[in-house]
Amino acid sequence: MAVNSTMDNPAPERNSSRTAVGAAALRAVHQLLDGEPKILDDPISARLLDADMLQRIQSDPARVQEPPTRGLRSHVVLRSRYAEERMAQAVQRGVRQCVILGAGFDTFAYRQPAWARDLRIYEVDHRATQEDKRQRLQSASIPIPANLEFVAIDFESVSLREGLQTSTLNFSEPAFFPCLGVMVYLTRKAAAAVFELVADFPANSEIAFTFSSLDSSLAESYAANHAALADRVSALGEPFQTYFEPQTLRRDLRALGFSEISFLSSEAAERAYFQNRGDGLRAPRRRVIGAAIVGSAQP
Fold it and tell me: Model-level pTM greater than 0.70?
């Protein structure tokens, strides 16, 4: 039976994340309206949405095909696909713990493939989002898998390390940490604490993460779309806060003890996931998806 790990002194009440629902909606659109093959095969996301949102998606398909929405959808499904492939490689190296940081409405645990069945999976997020998600899972009759544990932590008010110490996570064993769509919403101090925590785990531990970068070389249209997105999420009470530049981030991660650091390029993503698609999805131009392994990865 899944365990719900909570803090002795919980943070002040917060609303469930609106951007988490938005990411689930983008993954659902990919399942419902985009072509084959799916970049991310996720039959669960649509089941977490309420009937009104599903009706809006299906009644106005042209709206979700507007270039800014299509570009954001490409990023959201790509980051999950990339992280899950990295996780599969980590499992082959012997990693048996997965800690999903800022899990939101992530669905990996509820559609986990056979190779993940030996994993202990931890979904980390603040309490309000977890409660909202669990209610939606119950309403959709989606069972909580036995290898999943919820850990309620507000990254900005509680030490991530201390919060995870209330769970069954084994700090002496390597772990895989997906951290998708999270860093930009954290203060720089909280974002740094995430990397520092992972760096303290044993060799072969890994973090797959997204970040935001203000790249002046990109087209004005991208800058305008990014600014519009920043305005929308700020209006939802979840403003962008922290930006990283890839080269500086690489240097800082290496100083923490990460020895294998990579950033997914647009060209590599296009070759691996977006070739010959007829639905207009293209690899994002931003180099904002990365991975870093603690020490040297051993097969």
Answer: yes
Place of tokens 């931890």: 122
- State the Cα torsion 266-34-230-242 to the nearest 10°: -50
Superfamily of domain 3-213+240-294: Vaccinia Virus protein VP39 (3.40.50.150)
SS3 228: helix
Residue type, 47: R
Give CA–CA dist 6/9, Å, rounded. Answer: 9
| Spans of all domains in the chain | 3-213+240-294
- Distance from C-alpha of 212 to C-alpha of 162, rounded to nearest angstrom: 27
Q: For residue 178, what are the β-bridge partners?
A: 208
CA-nearest of 73, 39, 111, 4 to 284 is 73
Q: What is the DSSP letter of 277?
A: -
pLDDT digit string (tens) for 62-94?
Answer: 888 888 889 999 999 999 999 999 999 999 999
Q: Which residues contact 238 (CB under 8 A, 6 or more apart)?
A: 17, 18, 19, 185
List the structure tokens of 229: 């997105």
